[in-house]
Protein 1
Amino acid sequence: MALSEFELIRRYFSHCGAERADVLLGVGDDAALLDSAPGQDLVAAIDTLVEGVHFLPLAAAASIGHRALAVNLSDLAAMGARPAWALLAITLPCVDEPWLAAFAQGFGTLARAHGVALVGGNTTRGPLSVTVQILGHVPHAQALKRSGASAGDAVFSSGTSGDAAAGLALEAGRLELDDAAAAAQLRSRFSFPTPRNALGERLRDLASACIDVSDGLFADAAKLAAASGCGIEIAFDELAVSASLVRAVGMERARHLALTGGEDYELCFAVPPARIEELERALPPARWEYRRIGTLRAAPAALVTRGGNVMEFSHSGFDHFASQERAE
Ligand code: ADP
Ligand code: MG
């Protein structure tokens, strides 16, 4: 017998995330009642994932659940905010219980790891799409923004970049890799991205501006620069790439992908030169996994340099796989 909407929500979503004392009324009534914290600004973000656009038609349900929340957690990380509550609007083509169980497991595991309660949502029938709204807190007037940096500020990025684009290409069969461990690592960087919330919160007192990298490091760093009224110079040879990505595409293509591949959900942030020492003392780069990749400039252009020269490069990550296929 098909599950009723009521029973579906009760079974998979009414206890999916973390339990929080500030949820006065969660899933089950007409709306959630949330105890907002005094002295804090409320921070809100929302993102939709559509089948065939943001994930492949045969993507694992656990990955879709994880990513739908991760992309929102990442937006709060970029603001230096602490996530608290989420709402989930899901459109399902049919009631597939193993799919729902895996989706809820992917969503719920990440939600609990970040102390996020699922407080409400909406369930409808139609082509598969998932929208998550997230709410969180930041101490009053202390949120990080894309704006706020100045020419001369150093630009850093966390983790390694380009992995998710290669992971997606592997998933989609546009890239092949014999090294199974490296392939699994790249796939998991796409399917189960790690939003950098602990780093984002710590950067609140140190960074002059911050953005999370969803569209590719070059595009997103350029957005930060533009919002701050600056240009940017990125040093190609400073881009951090993983050993797995280098194994998959070689060092040269790896760094191109690091610039242009999206969906890594790392943080890109600016720090005034006078505060770099403090940054590196408070957050040792080896432990917090970030690296300086460039500098904000007064001239408005976004440039990539190599050995002091301005480099020409393709802005589309897909180009690399297309040209690799032609080369093979
Ligand atoms: P209404 O018709 O009043 O909007 P619904 O019947 O749609 O209420 O939803 C009942 C309750 O279940 C509400 O509290 C709603 O927030 C919650 N809910 C519905 N779908 C989801 C979902 N996918 N995840 C979490 N909560 C949900
Ligand atoms: Mg109602």
Note: Residues 61-78 form the longest helix (18 residues).
Protein 2
Amino acid sequence: MIIHTDRSAHQHPVGSEITPLSAYRNRRQWMLGAMALGAAGAWSPQRAVAQGVDRPGRLSPISSVPSSVPGARTVEKPTSYRDATTYNNYYEFGTDKSDPARLADKLKTRPWSVSIEGLVGKPGTYDLERLLRLAPMEERIYRLRCVEGWSMVIPWVGYSLAALIREVQPLGSAKYVEFFTLADPDTMPGLRSNVLQWPYVEALRLDEANHPLTLLAFGMYGEMLPNQNGAPLRLVVPWKYGFKSGKSLVRIRFTEKQPATSWNMAAPREYGFYSNVNPNVPHPRWSQATERRIGDDGGLLARRRKTEMFNGYEPQVGQLYAGMDLRRFY
Ligand code: MTE
């Protein structure tokens, strides 16, 4: 994020690749039909083109019900699957937007487990199969606003992180939750760069982590997460800049003191602990007042949209910050 802002913008795929919501719905219906026929593996590019869909992956479908959490389903048009899976920030695989889609197939997502540590009653190793069964999967359609000034709309599949927090029983002294993501030098060439300290670490206040909108995501667009989007599980905190949403989580620690976080350590004046989307507080090197929606007609020349306070989730999360000076706690 410190580097590449302009250059990466030019790598963005053109606006003609938008998938309308109807096509996305058709694709889901088709997938369900294919599964019923036992033909889920029979996806072919030709057939997909005939259906008017853009599904390049062959990931397992993940069933879910529409979320009833207030604010969890924007009616805005989802970004195309193709844009969401080829224009990524996952610095462990490189700093270009196209690096993760190109290189993340090396990531080994099975077996996988998450270590729960710190101030909890039930610490331990939670394997992926157990986490997948912990709570019913919901589909949430969230806006994702990157601190670089672009945004997407992504239909995620997962459940509120609060379900896991309840399960592990935080102690009364726990005030923060720290999220560590995978750092595997054998499969992640980006670790050779010192743009960040590895592993990538992010953290939330416990009440933020417990907010029903904070999502532990296992899938998107009705499929398991593609590697470049953070397989096999990641965080999604829709009212914060995208970098708070750590990918490929391996360790979650409950602490009393506010943890240090990767982007804050790398550039403390630019990236604060809170990093709530806030159009009134500019990044020291650029404004945060507007954003470019990836996939908007016109590509780089498309009209920028106004960025909303807390990314539009103010009715749901504003009270978490009542009385706080958000210029100071950026
Ligand atoms: N998680 C890890 N481990 N490494 C990263 O580089 N990038 C963050 C976040 N999570 C990042 C990460 C940033 S800057 C953004 S905007 C989002 O992931 C992008 O998520 P997406 O590629 O699924 O859109």
Note: Residues 1, 88-92, 144, 146, 181, 200, 229-230, 242-243, 245-248 surround MTE (CB under 6 Å).
